[in-house]
Amino acid sequence: MLSALGLRLRIFLFFCLLALGAIAVTVAALWLGYSRAGEPALRDAFIFVGLFSGFCMLGLCAAIWLLFDENVAKPIEQLAAAMRARAHAGVNRDLDTHGARYLGDLAPAAQGLAGQLGQAALASAEAIARETEHLEAEKKRLAALLTDIPIATVMASTTHQIVLYDGQAAAVLAQEAPPRLNAPLSDYLDLNGLQSAYGRMMRSGRDLRTRVKSANGERVHDLHLKPLGDAPGYIILFEGTAADAAPPQSRPLVYDFALLDSNHEELNDRTLDSLSYVVFDTETTGLLPHKDEIVQIGALRVVRGRIIPGETFETLVDPAIKIPASATRVHGITDTMVKGAPGIAEAARAFHRFASDAVIVAHNAPFDMAFLHRHAKRSGVTWDQPVLDTVLLSAVLFGASQSHTLDAICDRLEISIPAKLRHTAMGDARATAEAFCKMLPMLQARGLTTFEALLEETRRHSRLIADMN
Questions:
Q1: Do both 444 and 368 map to the same domain?
Q2: Which of 37, 48, 199, 464 sits in a 20 to 30 Å window from 291, CA-based?
Q3: Mean of pLDDT over the chain
Q4: CA-derived radius of gyration, the chain
Q5: Is 411 a member of any domain?
């Protein structure tokens, strides 16, 4: 049971036990002395001595605990977090040996070990970089090939989640909902019709041409389904759609073949790296969610621990009230810029579609979510997605006593935010996403591998911020 408690809490309980033990021994000794003295008149004196010595012992134990906490427990906690950041988040800064100066040779030994790990990691990174360069070249060839083929192509897992889509497919899917890696195909196609066609294809083991309605029933798509042979999953070709939906030139080929091995477990039992996340931030007219309004929303998706290129959501929002000059000085958004932008109802519905199948991640999430919840009825959506807060994740990893502002977290994890993007919705969302991607392997290294385990751990720091779940 005690092993589940944090180091600093265990040390605090140890000093509490030490103080109680010392007081108990003192009281017992005074009682024995009073009993043997046989002088009732000395009772008040013995009581006074007992109370005085008890308070002195409490004060002494509290003072020693404070010194021990500040010079031993906190430095150990910080040293462990810094080593975990180096080992799992690619942070290369030197360890704070001065802050751990009372830990004897532990800090220099940790610094030496970190240096050795850094050299090994550098060699591995160089090898990975060479292989990545080769894979990127292959990816560009594949993307060019698929771009030249005028047929929208999607690869899906056996549970009908998107594993790959090209530029043409992105344009076709966007007619129904934002194209998203690992999104359910039910967001784009009639699931009953798709499952029926998939079943026929699997029973025959051959290609199948069929017609399936869109998810909203407004369109009918001519599909060519192709099995992947021995591999799980299948390919969908949207035939005859290239002319109707031309892809943007900058749209990348998006894929992650590891998604073919779909996870069928419930959310709480799923591993953190198997979930999809939407990291978002808002800019507002002020700091009061009950009366201020959103003026900008920025979001991007994280799948399997990486930010997915091209899967972003960004919009200005007309707040229908005047933007105070004090707010404009922070985020640079003026009344002129939001003129003609969608209102909060329309913007919130669009963002909800983008985030519908994911865990929502934000820095100080209760603030941003309060605006969305306040307009939920007006928007016609329900914000029931699970939420993670990087403030709480930082507290789990680096200790509740540390600063957990976005700037402090980014500095700790060696993430730079360009000055022109700071206090913009997309700039802060990207910084939060980069920090979150570095935190994920650190959390897993601490044994917090499932979503339920992570939620349980963050709730221990709920005094810092409200629990959105």
A1: yes
A2: 464
A3: 87
A4: 29
A5: yes
